Amino acid sequence: MIKFKNNSGITLIALVITIIVILILVGITINGGKELIKRSKIESLLTNMITIKSNAKVYAEEINAEVWDLGDQDKVNKRKELFQSKYKMSEGDSSIINKVDNSINDSNGCEVYNITRETLNEMGLSSLANDSEDGEFVVVYNSKDFTKLEIVYPSGVPYDNSTYYTLTDLQDKMRE
Q: Mind giving me the DSSP string for the chain?
């Protein structure tokens, strides 16, 4: 009679299969983690842009209260002066206007202002100010209705094979 020896060890094949399965799981986890990190950075940027927008609305209301009785061209000139002197926001590049949608960029025209580092500090976004350059964020106001405004990130945010420039576009994408 032939006696078989009872082996209780792991075979080489079982070990290789186990290592392959572990590597696959690690790969999936790392890729998923990268996506979560990317999404959290975009959500942080969104939060900062929302803060900028709320402050920009307050600034617009304060300035419009000061210029409400002026003529149209005088209002524009005085607003530019006040944005610069009170809030350190410089006049921005008007080519940014074509990045905003028609609800802001209608037949009334738009005014564009760069958010400076000093403005970000005043808004309570000092950590963002330390990491940003002047004009990295831009606010576009409708010239006749300053309650209509958009925050633009001119360098764009790449996400899901597209680049998003405005707060509204980013919010819409993140809601999907």
A: -PPPP---S--HHHHHHHHHHHHHHHHHHHHHHHHHHHHHHHHHHHHHHHHHHHHHHHHHHHHHHHHTTS-HHHHHHHHHHHHHHHH-PEE--GGGGGGS-TTTSSTT-EEEEEEPHHHHHHTT-HHHHHH--TTSEEEEEESS-TT-EEEEEEEEEEETTEEEEEHHHHHHHHH-
